[in-house]
Each structure stands twice: as C-alpha cells, then as structure tokens.
C-alpha cells in the first residue's frame, strides 16, 4: 500500500533534522520573554546599565537564532515538499498510463487529470505548510509549557489549560469543514455542468427562445451554491474569534492568578509580562495555522484520491502458462468464441473468426454493435471473459504488453494528436527515421498537404490538432500507424472524414504497398469494407455474418439491409 | 512602468464598478463597518487594561486586588465582546459577499445566454466556466476577507500607534527603528517574490496542460507502447514545475521568520530600553507590558499588507475579466426591428449574400437562390465543408456581411430575432438534451404544451413506444444517472421536440450514420413526417432526399460551388458528380 506517509518516510532523516532546527529556532524565540522577565525582575534592581545592555544583546542573539533556525528549517521543508511531490507526481503519471482500460473507465479521464493537476498541487502545498506553519504551534505550546514550568509552574498550568480548548476547536471545525466543503463542491459541479450544457446547446436555446427559462433554472442552482457556501463560511469563520477569545481569556487569567502569586511572593511581575508575551506569540501562530486549515483539509482529501490510483492493482499481467511461442505463421489473428462485457450486458458474444497474414478484415455494424470493443480486446486493453484471442498463434494474455502492441499500427476512433510538430506526431516517440516518416505520409495521402504547409513536417499542431481539418487529421493518424511498418494495421472508423475519392485511393495504396500487413478495417460506410477478404458483420455484439461481399449479400440479411439503406440513403456525403 | 498607467486607470474603473455592487447593500456595509470598528476598538483596549492591571500588582504597597479584579473583569468582558462582534461581523460579511456574488453570477450567466452565437463559438467552454466559478470565487474571497483584513489592519495600526504613544512616547522612539525593517520586508516581498510566484504558476500550467493532453490520448499511447517515453517527458516538465515552486518557496520561506524577527527585535528593543527606563523610574512595569502588546499588534497588519494587496490585485484582475465579459454586447444589440413575424408562408430567398466567419476571409462570395413555400433545399458536401453556415445565416446566429435574406419577400432583419427563430423548427445532428425529465425535454419546444400534445409528438416521432416501456414513462430523468438514451433515441427525442412546433419552416440535419439500421428506419420515417408541408433546408445524406430536392446546394471549403437539381448536376460532371460517384467506384 502506498500512502503519503510512505513517500515522506524516505525523507525521515531530513524531516527530523528540519524539525530539530525548527524547534531550536522556535524555542529560541520563547527564551526572549524569559530573558526579559529576568532583566526586569532580577537585573534591573541591581541598577547595572551594563548588564542590562548585555542581556539585551543576548536577546538579540536569540532573536537572530530564531530567524536563522526558522529560515533553514523552512527551506529544508520546501525541499522535502519538492522532492516528495516530484516523486508522487511522476509515480502517479506512470501509474495512470499503466492503468488497465477498465480502471481508466472506472476513475474516468477528467478525474485522472484533476488528480494529476490540482490534487498533487494541494498535496505539495500541504506538505510544505504543515512543516513550516503546522508544527510551529505544537512546538510553541510544548516548548512554552516546558520552559515556563521551571520558572513559574502555576502560571504554566494556565497555559497548559488552554491546549485542550484549542485542540477541540481545531478538530471540530476541521471535521465540519471537510463535509461542508465537499457539499459545496458538489453544488459547484452542478453549476459548472449547467454552464457547459447551455454552452453546447446555445443554438437550441436561442432557436426556441428559452433564455428566460434557462436563467430561471440557473438561478435555482446559484441559490443552492450560495446557500451552501454561506453555511460553510459561517461555520468556518467561528475559528478565529473563538481562538482569540480563548487565548485572551487565558492571558486575563494569567494576570489574575499572577496577582495572587505575586502577593504571596511566589512570582514576580516580570514573569507575568513574559506570560502575556507567550500568549501573544502563540495567538499569532494559531491564527496563521487556522489560515492553513483549508489547505490541509483539501490536501488530505487530495492525498486520498492520489493514493487510490497508486494503489490500484496491476491488471492484465502476463500469463506465463500462455507464453509459449507458436510455430504457426506470423501475422495471423484468431478470435475463438470470444465473449466480453464491460459491465454485465455482453458487448461481444461468441465471436469467432480467423485471419491470415496479409488478409484484410472489414468490420461493419451499427454503433454499439461491438466494433470498437473488438479492437480493444485485440490490443488487450481488456481481457475477454470467455474464449481466447490469438495473435501470431499465441494467446494475447501470454505476451508481454510491449511485445504484443509493437506488432500493431493503430488508428483509434477519435484518435489523438499532440500539440507538437507534424513530424513528432507521425513518429510518435518511436525509432522511425525521416524516410519512413515521409513514405508513410505519402501512402496515407498526407504528404501533399503537409508539404504545402510553410514549415512542412515541422509545422506545429495545436492541442488536439484543432488547426487541421478532420480529413487532414485522419491522414496524419494513418501516417502514424503506417510509419512503424506494422504486422497488423487497425483502422477504426478512421477514414470517415475523407472524401470518397481519397478513401478509395487510400484503400488501393494499402493493398499495393503493404501486401504482407494484416488489416482490420472498421467502418460505417459499406463502401469502405466491401473489398475486404473477409467481412465481419456485427449486430448487438454478435456476428451476424462472416464472409466476402458476394457471400454476405446472399446469406446475411443484416449486411444486405445496411447495403440497401446506404445505397438508397448513403448519398453524396460522408 | 509607462505602460502600466492604463492598467491603473482600468483598475480604478473596476474598483468603482465593484463599489456599485456594494452600494446596493449600503446598510449591510455600514453595519459591517461599525462592527469592525467596535470589535477592533474593544480588542485594542485589552493591552491598555493589561498594563493597568499589572501596574496594580506592582505597587510598593503590595497588590491592589480591587483594581486587578476590576481591570481583569473589564479585559474579560472586552475580549469576549470583541470576539462576539468579530464573529457577527464575519457572518454579515459572508452574507453580504454572497449576495454580491450571487448577483454577479446571475449577471454573468444571463450574459452568456444573451451573447451572440458567433462570440460563443470563438470561446472555450472552459474559459466561460473559469469566469463564472474561479474568477467570481476570487472576487468573493477578496470581498469577504481581504477588504475586511485591510480595514481591520488600518484600524489596528492606528489604534496601536495611539496606544504606544499614549503609554510611552520615549519607548516608541526606540521601537520606531523596526518600522523601516517592516517596510523593507514588504517591498522585498513584492519585488523579488512575486515574479517567482508568477513563474511558478506558469510552469505548473504547462505541466497540467501536458498531462491533460497525454491522458486524453492514453489509449493511443498504450497502443503504440510509448508509455515510458511519455513518462520521461512528463518527468522533465514535472522537474521544471517543482523547481519553480521551490524557487518561489526558497524566497517565500524567508518571509514568515523575518516577520517574526522584526517582532522579536521589537521585543528586544522594548525590553532593553524598558528595563533601563524602569531602572531610572521612568516607566511602570505594566506600561512596558502594554507597550509590548501594542507593538505586536502594530507590526502584524504591516507585514500582512503585501499579502493582502497581492490578493486584492488578483481579485481585481478577476473582476476585470468578469466585467469584460459583462460588457460584451448581447445578441441583437444593434437591432432596431420591432416587428414580430407572425405565421409566414415560407418563401425564402437569398439575394447576393456575402459572408465569412472572419470578415477578412469571405467564404460565401455571392449566393442567390430561392425556395418557394413547401420546397426542399438539400445542402450536400464533404464533412467539415461548412454546411452549417447556411443554417447559421437562416437562423441569424450570424448575419451576412452583404446581401439580404428574405422571408415572404421581406428582409429577415426587419423582424425580431425571437419571432424569426420561432418560425423555424430545427433538428440538428448534435442532439441537445438537458438534465430533466423526458417530458420536459420534449416540451422544451413549446411552453405550456399539454400532455396530450407531448404524447402525440412522441408518437409522431416514433419514440412513444420506447418511452411507454420505461418504468417511469415520461417522467424518466434524462441524466447520467437516469436512463441511458442511445444516440438514435436522442435524435428521435429532438424530432419529437420539433414536432411540437407549429413552424412552417424546417432545418434538418439528416446525418444518421451513427445509429443502427432499425433506429435509422424509425428516424427516417419520423423525419419524413416532420418535413411534410414545410419549407425545408436539409443537410442531406440520403439519396432519396437529394434526388427529390427542389434545389441542391453543393458546399466545398465553405463556399457553394454548384447548385441545381440532381440530374442537372450529374450531367454537369463537376464536383457533385465526383463525390456522388466515388462511392460506387
């Protein structure tokens, strides 16, 4: 189990040294009122100006020591916070990338992103602040009580009596605060969703003149947010006044009790003044701590969310029993009776087919019929529930993940382009040389438009390639898939934005230039798969037909009806 | 420095505008001011009383218990009263700031909804969300906290100053040595530390951008097995981010201890000088005590000043962003039309329309065509070619830069936008349903639609059977947690919504490629019913629609490149012919 504690424990030594230095510095501060009391009560009566000045100088030394100790300790704390956060963040990113697809679905992508960004930031803040400010109050309290017990035990008891009050307030308010702020966050999420919703639907809203209706429904959500925020604020703002009152009353009691002690000759007036100083020092520290309250409660909630990801078990491990190399021909794909479900209802049921090296499989079917699932299983993003999948005659579960995926060139549905150059996007961090890149771009029909750009292959894409058209993006993605000269090429609905002409040219090029590459081509348009060696027709997760175009037209009613619907309705448009 | 001036001027305008929000609640503001004054004054009297009490202990004649009790009693009362007042003050401030925030949020939302579509198209959803949540939050915390702290600070500094001078002007002379130190720290902080913090947020933003990008592409990264490479890249950016954080912290961590040092240095000076004065009977012990307490109160706000100012700065920047959005002109700001369009027959004509989303980049150069009532215009072309442009112009989401669009022979600009839009019903490809029940979603098309009407619309849209089969029927919520509607069902819902509208003009996006065959048949059937007897503008994908269309407009790269009937266009052998035949290569 990974936890924040584990990550911090690496820095145990540095943290204890830091804490020691901090304690020395903080306690040095506590000596100041003591020295002052001594000066007033014991030195001043001797009438020696020199000793008073010397003691004054000694105080100054202590003040400097307090400053130095705290600065050094704070910097050490910052270093610990930096190093810890760096490691946590790197671990989290790599854990995230190595999560199984099922786990990614479970946590969801936006949540993973916010864990990496705002949660690690909160933790960084918290680690630093606790070391710098959080430990100051306990040191002041413990140190103050210990130091003063030797001087004036009864007054020290007053100081000690304050501690439980402060503790109770801290615990009460912070526990209340966490629930209230979680509540508030939920209301804010609803509000954000509303804004996002209306932003996407603005045309409909305007077309139907529903702005007033939307304003009213937003007003309700706004009310809720304001109500919850007020509630949280009203509770949280109790802290400062109460702590002020408790500490100031403590100071009053010190003066009162001090009066008795002085009158009985058991204490001196300078000591009372010293105690009032203690209270002020502690009060200032407590106020600064209450300011980091919110940070700490946010930070610990964030740490939990981070550790939840770090502690997810390794799924999809390599099964050594299946790791035997087959002697069959390379490049083949076999699905044997494959059944799979994301959550209950099967997404694929008893799917069976086999494909030899260099063959093309077309997959067609409606949305939700299981086409993309088929790709996900083939790449082993998920493991199938029943049956098995063989690549090169070997069960995919027997492969090392890397070794398996190296065989593929893939264009996924809605695939992703980075905010980087065209070259980086095609090479995609692999050992692909410039010639291979250019050849792939040519074959993917991307070369003409890339070369017409001012900076050619060095042209930059913006996030998600938003500065390129849909068809250009798809061609770049296909170039990426081809650049690795894969054994198996998977194209999931990746020519939908190409016009029919380019689409047809692309298919011809693939047949000519990549004769040994096994191709799995998923499409909505029947024209894209008609010429495949085999066509798999999926209907609600089941194979409704398997065979070439001519056979399917005769034997498969689903295929025929798709054909008819597209030939009647699949006009001049994609 | 020269170019900062307009910013300052701007800031002043922002402050003035924020102040206007306060004016609405002047009584709350006045109450808050009085509470703040009261709570601080009571707190400021504390040290004075402490001194008096200690003086009463330190008498040659022994302890004057009556006086000690009196002063301690007063202290206790004053501190409690001050605490209570300051709590009430927080509550008043929270309620006040929440009222202001609420009306700001309302203003922003209402503005978003009122903005021209063209403006929103250029804006990111995230940007809008930032304004309405993060920016307003920043303003809020500044309103409820920083202003209060600043005011408290001023009162405290002045009060403590008066206190110190009243107790011992001589000691104040000594203490004054620390004031330049405080000022130095404050200046140092804003000069040296703030740029470092700015750099820190910059690096962090870069890192976050990178991780968001990579995680959105997680499947691709896995598919190509380049996880390690990406992790390496991430580690570099992460290093930059944490180093920038540390650099800011390295200097930032000087601040706290230095502030304490100034405080302690003050203590040292007061103790030494005080003891010396005590030695020569120039001061009483209680006065030293009061002075020490005042000194600590005095330096607190001065050292917080930099902090508060930087927070107020960022709040003003946030407020400025909010105001800038509020200042955008709403849609139809320049409209003078007051005529409402009744129930048009449905003759539409474009006369020499010229349009570009960017006025510099005209995409429709000179478009004229005519559609008689009841006719169908099919718009065809490759994906991304700009077929929705015509929809944008018809509905006046955008206005052309030249030419006119006529409805029943009159320029559409002569009617109010609301009445013009009411004359159309619209089914877009991006089916838009909101969180609410199925009933609410269908009835969205017509205020006050009766149950009978809703059911008939659902029946006509071929979705009634599906809805009736749901356990909660028409009351089933359409949410993430509620029923999961398929794409096709969503489309049928929006058709049902359009069915409710009595409009004689229809805008229809036929794209049905993403639904299964069975649903596609249902959709087609429902669409045919919807189109009956209306002037239709169809972003067409079906051959039957295209063949039967009275006019086909072929769109390429935003512009209309060909127009005519199916047979004419095929005969012409141009772009239409090319894309039409490519399918049957």
Task: Describe the protein's architecture and organization.
The complex is a heterodimer of chains A (574) and B (585). By secondary structure, chain A is α/β, with parallel strands linked by helices. Chain A has three domains: 4-310, ABC transporter transmembrane region fold (Up-down Bundle); 329-407 and 488-568, P-loop containing nucleotide triphosphate hydrolases (Rossmann fold), CATH 3.40.50; 414-485, Rossmann fold, CATH 3.40.50. Chain A contains 21 helices and ten strands. A six-stranded mixed β-sheet of chain A has the order 6-7-8-3-9-10, sandwiched between helices. Chain A has a four-stranded antiparallel β-sheet with strand order 2-1-4-5, with helices on one face. In chain A, a hairpin with a 2-residue loop joins strand 9 (534-539) and strand 10 (542-547). Chain A starts with a helix and ends in a 5-residue tail after the last helix. In chain A, 49% of the residues are buried. Chain B has 585 residues and is α/β, with parallel strands linked by helices. Among the domains of chain B are: 11-167, Up-down Bundle (ABC transporter transmembrane region fold), CATH 1.20.1560; 348-582, 3-Layer(aba) Sandwich (Rossmann fold). Helices cover 65% and strands 10% of the residues of chain B. Chain B has 20 helices and twelve strands. Chain B has helices at 5-23, 26-57, 65-114, 117-122, 125-167, 169-175, 178-216, 218-223, 227-279, 285-327, 388-394, 417-422, 438-443, 451-460, 464-469, 487-499, 517-531, 543-548, 566-572, 575-582; strands spanning 348-355, 364-371, 376-380, 402-407, 410-411, 424-427, 436-437, 477-478, 505-509, 535-539, 551-556, 559-564. In chain B, the strands form three sheets. Chain B has a six-stranded mixed β-sheet with strand order 6-9-10-3-11-12. The model of chain B is unreliable at 1-6 (pLDDT under 50). At the A-B interface, helix 2, helix 3, helix 5, helix 7 and helix 8 of A face helix 2, helix 3, helix 5, helix 7 and helix 8 of B.
